């Protein structure tokens, strides 16, 4: 019986060994499957990472290009605005120069008019003084002439009386 018992023990050990080997084989398959899954996921992750890096690089390039275009447009707009401002400034300066010229001309004309008015006032004052002097002279001369004529008339009258008496 002992032989039978030994066979049973052996069989039992063999079954345990078999079950351990099957378990180990199953565990190895599970581990291999898990490793394969992890490897696939790692590969997919690496692929995804590469895709994301390429996408990010593409977006960065597009953003830089858009930034350059925006900078160029902004600079062009700035230059255009500066040119327009300079044109407005030149126009304003031209208008200011014309206004200054017109103001200087108006002041000169005003000064000329004031000088002419002053000359006319001076001339009128002078003419009034001359006229007053001449009127006074005429009055004096008139009185003197009247007196001369009266004397001359009296002398004639006396001469005529003398002549008429003598005749």
Give me a quick take on this structure.
By secondary structure, the protein is mainly α. It has one helix at 2-166.
Keywords:
167 residues, mainly alpha
Could you outline the blueprint of secondary structure elements for this entry?
Elements: H1 2-166
Largest sheet: none
User: Structural class, please?
Assistant: mainly alpha
Radius of gyration: 69 Å
Order of helices and strands: H
Give the termini separation: 235 Å
Uncertain runs with pLDDT below 50, 5 residues or more? none
Count of β-strands: 0
Strand content: under 5%
Overall geometric form = rod-shaped
Oligomer: single chain
Amount of helix: over 70%
Overall pLDDT = 87
Total count of helical runs of at least 4 residues? 1
Textual characterization of the structure:
- With 167 residues, the chain is mostly helical.
- It is 99% helix and 0% strand.
- It has one helix at 2-166.
- It is rod-shaped, with a radius of gyration of 69 Å.
